[in-house]
Amino acid sequence: MAAPSFDAPPAAEPSVESAAEPAGPFQPGSRSVGAIGRRILLANVVAEIGIVVTGGLVRLTGSGLGCPTWPECTDESLIPVPTQSEGFHKFIEFGNRLLTFAVLVAAVAALIVVLRPWLAKRFPGTKRLGEPGTVRRPLGWLAVGVNLGIVAQAALGGVTVLLDLNPAVVAAHFLLSMAMIAAAYLLYRRAADPGDQPVTIDVRAELRWVAYALVVFCFAVLVLGTVVTGSGPHSGDADEIARFGFDIRMVSWLHADLVMLFLGLALTFTLGARLSGAPVHATRAGLALLAVCLAQGALGYTQYFTGVPVPLVSLHMLGACLVWVATLEVLVSTRTRGVNTAEDAYERSVVVS
């Protein structure tokens, strides 16, 4: 089968995905969440990323068992007590538990934003909620998913403590956070669509598949990253070391090799978007992903050759979240769902020369 040629590319013919959605409590609609609503949804994304970074600090400072029981901090108290032997670690661990409530507030606020049309219909006196209407089904399920994820995350955090920071459970704790970040970010991006019209694919079919492959490879990189962390010096507890038992050098280089493959896919998408006449937003998404990947790669090598210092590892965890979000943005950039304004319509019609 001959490779596709990008010389004098033909104009991409948009394809439409129009599968019927199953019935449920949320109905398709065309109501926007508004500017304030989008800011709340963005704050939800930031909160989900923030709890990953603070959770990483718990692990990196050896404070994973600062509160040795769950849901209490000690057998006798819900909060840290002066007689605890865990020292400052108890405050770090308990502080991270408290931040879970802040994340829950952000998720509930996002759910209220999505349910606003239904709430306005249910409670006519609440004029600030806007005009009554129907809740957009995809937004509803994503918002509910984020809230259920927080409940599951809290339970899994308890299991992590009760199993003395078993590295497999710690890895699952992190990967569930990545799934929640994905749900929160897709909720934010989907809310920007003017409605729930069928999707129009703006790029060549090959690029669409590359975008899907990027998401799969990125998640694989995250999974292998948890193996590297679970085989390294930062076990999460200052006294008892719970490790996978793999050779740290071997898994680190395997992780680096997979990152190289991922970077090659990102470069393929960006060049393909540029040369095939894809819309501007697709090329920009590819360039943003490349920039974040290069920064993350440089940070990863630096931390490896400097003995994985805590500040760099913490930044690396933040970078992992940003790479994941940038990868999701690449996939989102390959399609449109209606046009918001005349300016957006013009931008989507521009072909990169």
List the helices and strands and how they pair.
Blueprint: E1 15-17, H1 34-60, H2 89-122, H3 137-162, H4 167-190, E2 199-201, H5 205-229, H6 248-275, H7 280-305, H8 310-332, E3 335-336, H9 342-349
Antiparallel strand pairs: 1-2, 2-3
Helix pairs in contact: 1-2, 1-4, 1-8, 2-3, 3-4, 4-5, 4-8, 5-6, 5-8, 6-7, 7-8
Structure description:
This protein is an all-alpha fold and 353 residues long. It folds into 2 domains: 32-192, no CATH class; 198-353, Four Helix Bundle (Hemerythrin (Met), subunit A), CATH 1.20.120. The protein has 9 helices and 3 strands, in the order E-H-H-H-H-E-H-H-H-H-E-H. It has helices at 34-60, 89-122, 137-162, 167-190, 205-229, 248-275, 280-305, 310-332, 342-349; strands at residues 15-17, 199-201, 335-336. Strands 1-2-3 form a 3-stranded antiparallel beta sheet, with no helix packed on it. Helix 1 runs antiparallel to helix 4 and helix 1 (34-60) runs antiparallel to helix 8 (310-332). The longest helix has 34 residues, at 89-122. The protein is flat and about 65 Å long.
